[in-house]
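A note from the maintainers: we've had questions about how concatenated examples are separated. There is no special marker in the raw files; a new sequence line simply starts the next protein. For clarity in this README we add a label.
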Amino acid sequence: MVWSIFDYENSFVKVTREEVNKIPFLKFKPNGYEGGLPTIIYYHGWHSSKEFKRFEALAIASHGYQVVVPDALFHGERDAIDHDNPENLEKYLWDIVLQSVEESREFVEGIIDNHNCDPSRIGIMGSSMGAITAGGVFPYNSNIKCLIGFSGSFAWTESIKMGQLPGENEENKRKIELYDPMNNKDKINNRSILILHGSEDRSLPIDGQRVFFNEMKPLYNENLDSFQFIEVPNVNHYITTEMLERSIIWLKENL
């Protein structure tokens, strides 16, 4: 895969570089909107950064949403490491995910207080590592209304057992169990969730999301429209135009 940044300006969306609690992020704000905006916090994946999510964020913002894309630890402006080294994935993945979860409350509060965010209309989404992150941030923040995950896992411990995510070390084991979305049913119950995943994903196979969906589905018996799992056939570990389109449609219905 060739990594490139979409850096063209958009007449309908203003893009600015901001910070909350020393966390750098790009803010995509649609022009012509005043007051509190429905806001999406979008977590990027491994080997990515806030800049690499510009095109997707612009597409979402053009539909009337403010989109906030922070740099994760060891990515972008936050002491980036060599992401091509597989040893670094094993060593740092959970440090990065857990750091994002634990700093998320103050980050969300900062977005609400200083960035024209409607506190009753906050969504969170992520791709790959960012989807793992978003899955942990969601139950940790009760003021987030909905969650979207592209090509990730909301079944952390099960995905580790299946060998699809790096094993936890002793320092992180307790935190992984604490923040694992599968262990927080009471905090997730009936809050809107959309999962999109390629059926042929070879980087982070779809099995973990199937486990999560089947485990959580009984909680949504009376509200299945707000809990959806879309398996995209013949797609590997990336976001298709269809997946992005489906996410925007779903946001229109749930945020």
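[label: protein 2]
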Amino acid sequence: MRKISLIIIHCSAVTPDQESSAAQIDTWHRQRGWKFGIGYHYVIRRNGEIEPGRPEWMVGAHCVNHNQHSIGVCYEGGLDIRGQPDDTRTEAQKATLRRLLEDLHRRYPHALIVGHHDLNPHKDCPCIKDVAREYADLQPR
């Protein structure tokens, strides 16, 4: 079993008029040559629905140098209508993301919740200003 020390939040980097389901992300990742397809473990759609990606037991492909010990959660969106980085999460996505993170925190209580940009400052992803602060109550004590 993998030892999980990070839960990494991502966005799919699509505008409000674009969709990015787990199936679509799987296709995009396979087109990039990723043998196992979708690199995230979960995708949260704008309507708040959670779609499964890779099973948790499988190493993800979502954050260089951190995949071995992390769970990747991606929400649909992240760009405004002009294609600029923005926190575009719907209320349904925010509620579902919190519930999913609460569940993951129960199962992986020592895992730090971070945004992709916290580990790679060259990324805007997930377009949430301060992931650690937003989920401070779910961080390891």
